[in-house]
Amino acid sequence: MNSTTKLQPSASPSLSLTALAALGVVFGDIGTSPIYAFKQCLSAGASGEDVFGIVSLIIWSLVILISIKYVTLVLRVDNQGEGGILALLSVVFPEGRQKESPRMAAIMTAVGLLGAALLYGDGVITPAISVLSSVEGLEVYSPQLSPWLVPLTVVILAILFAVQRKGSGSVGKVFGSIMLVWFLCLAIFGAVHLAQHPAILQALNPWIGLRYLSQHGKATFVVLGSVFLSVTGGEALYADLGHFGRRPIKLAWHFLVLPALCLNYLGQGALILTTPAAVRNPFFLLFHGPALLPMVLLGMAATIIASQALISGIFSLTMQAGRMGYLPRLRILHTNAAMEGQIYIPPVNAVLAAACIGIVLGFRSSARLGAAYGVAVTLTMLTTTVLFFFACTKLRRWPLWQAGLVCGIFAAIESIFFAANALKILHGGWLPLCIGGLLFYLMTTWKMGRQIILGEMEHATPLGEFLESLSNNRSEHRILPERCPGTAVYLTSSRWLVPGALVQNLKHNHVLHERNIVLTIVTDNVPRCRGESRLEIETLPMDFYHLIVHYGYMELPTMKRIIRSAAARDFDLDLKTTSFFLGGQRVVPKKGSGLPAWREAAFIFMSRNGQRAATSLGMPSDRTVEILWEAEV
User: How many CB atoms are located within 10 Å of the residue 560 CB?
Assistant: First the structure.
């Protein structure tokens, strides 16, 4: 009995263990930025005074944008525990509130979608610059290895994307431990060099950074674009809120990650002051003799972990966008039966892999990649600030002046960073902007096209009216006692209209099953649905039933899960005796109206190449009938 009592607390992870686990996922991106951020700031050459100002700017960017904005404020705005820009958008402008101010809701929805789309641009460059910068540490260890840096980076990225189908569950168990060692090494070796030149502590004074900006004028814009590389993991931090919760993230940030980053940047600054020649790679030159090679290998492991976390985040973002109606169905595989959030999307993985490897082969160094990195992230941060302003006024009930002051400060800083990063556009910054712009175009095109098709469906017969007419003329449509045995399930996206597949089946076959179920799957404006709110069951005339199944935008509905939900409500639904009827549209261009010509081709391509509903829901192929008809857009 006593032993049982002692084991009970282990049933749920402690706060410290959860914070440890968060190190590998939440802070992977921002935790590996010291490898390249400070080096990039010094790429144009820097004097001793410049080092004080640059270190000050980096540290206070971390404090203002990460500690205050994200960790202290933005993490408080969540959708049932889930974070990220799409979750923030769904909280600030849910469907019900969109009708109150449709114009503003449409603008803010576009802003949120743009921010989400730009994260894909970040997702392409982050693995490339992180892994390449860590591999470049081998050049410090042995200059003879220089020709092998790019090939080795390509091999690591290829392996990283190849193992995605296996899932990150088994590797994820050691992510936190590796990152704990990483952050401790950042802090320890940074502190060693700080002790050798303690004058660098002057950089903790924010006026040092402001003085640097005032003295160098327009020239500081180039440096600011590189300073921003130190805070690019802020959005990833917010997006991973649902995996670990607010308290573990705050604990890990304030007591380990922020101190380790500050000590390391101070240490790099101290190294430059004592050894100016270290400007070629100040991070890896912090480590002397036998410590260098282990730190290079540890850096490779840390950047792989950071890349893995971002790739997983892109998978989750894609699933959210699809469930919210901004992307077509894609093939989504669950890699861990015990953990719902671990998914793998083959087409997204293939595109990311090709893009990352192509970027490495094209840019060939972290310095050149740094010139392309940061533009998309600044815009994403700005969109988060705009949406957070509405969250403060609408949800938190802040006074308008207070929300405007706080968000105005963040927006001003981020706007300056964006202006600085805009200088990179001609030097590669166009790449993430083009990727984000393409995703924004595809998401808005898909949403507009689906709205046109759904608008045409509104002219269909209401379900109640259809059943009433069927009852009054049952001899014409249903011959008794010769009726089709078993159960038929008709899938429809509308809660009130008769499914098109039902009308077509009745029209051509002139029979109905003994029991008929109209199934509607609804994506609610929450991450996950629980308990009784999952399933609504309505008994209708003529042996009809209407099942309305609710899912959150973070969930993936399948027929097996729907059947389990029905069984929990004592509603019998047996796959072996059930036939499934789906209606689908073969999209064709509409002359004179509908989608603009420059969107038509993209929508038709996506609709014809998206995953079929039967496959997505896991319906048995030998018991599924799909009826197609033309739909104009």
Answer: 12
Amino acid identity for residue 471 in this structure: S
Mean pLDDT, each 10-residue run in order, the chain (633 residues): 34 68 83 91 71 94 96 89 83 64 77 86 85 90 89 93 71 74 95 94 94 82 88 85 84 94 96 90 89 91 85 83 85 64 82 92 86 84 92 88 94 93 85 90 90 72 81 51 77 83 80 89 81 85 90 83 88 85 77 76 86 83 81 66
Q: How far apart are CA 189 and CA 184, in angstroms?
A: 9
Tokens encoding 573: 């639904």
What is the distance between the terminal CA atoms of the chain, rounded to a whole angstrom?
68
Tell me the two tokens of residue 263.
């000590």
Check: CB of residue 548 under 8 Å from CB of residue 562: no
pTM for this one? Answer: 0.81
* 492 close to 460: Cβ distance less than 8 angstroms: no
DSSP at 497? B
Evaluate the CA torsion angle 621, 624, 627, 632 in order and state its sign.
negative
Strands 544-551 and 624-632: unpaired
Paired tokens of 205: 């004074």
Q: How many C-beta atoms surround the C-beta of residue 32 within 10 A?
A: 28
User: Which domains occur in the chain, in start order?
Assistant: 19-450 (1.20.1740.10), 458-632 (no CATH)
Tokens coding 467: 């059943």
* 220-227 vs 400-422: helix crossing angle, rounded to 10: 110
Handedness of CA 499, 505, 508, 510 (dihedral sign): negative
- Per-residue CA distances from 138 to 94, 113, 258, 631 (Å): 50, 40, 27, 58
Question: Pairing mode, if any, of strands 544-551 and 578-588?
Answer: unpaired
3-state secondary structure of 544: strand
- Identify the DSSP state of 461: P
Q: Is 197 left (phi over 0), alpha (psi -120 to 50) or beta?
A: beta
**Bridge partners of residue 632, in order along the sequence:** 588
SS3 618: coil
Nearest-angstrom CA–CA distance, 56 and 53: 5
Q: In terms of Cα–Cα distance, which of 60, 46, 61 is closest to 272? A: 46
- What digits encode the pLDDT tens for the residues 414-457? 999 999 888 888 888 888 889 999 999 999 999 888 888 777 66
What are the counts of helices (DSSP H) followed by strands (DSSP E) for the chain?
29, 8
CA distances from 179 to 71, 305, 556, 597 (A): 19, 8, 31, 50
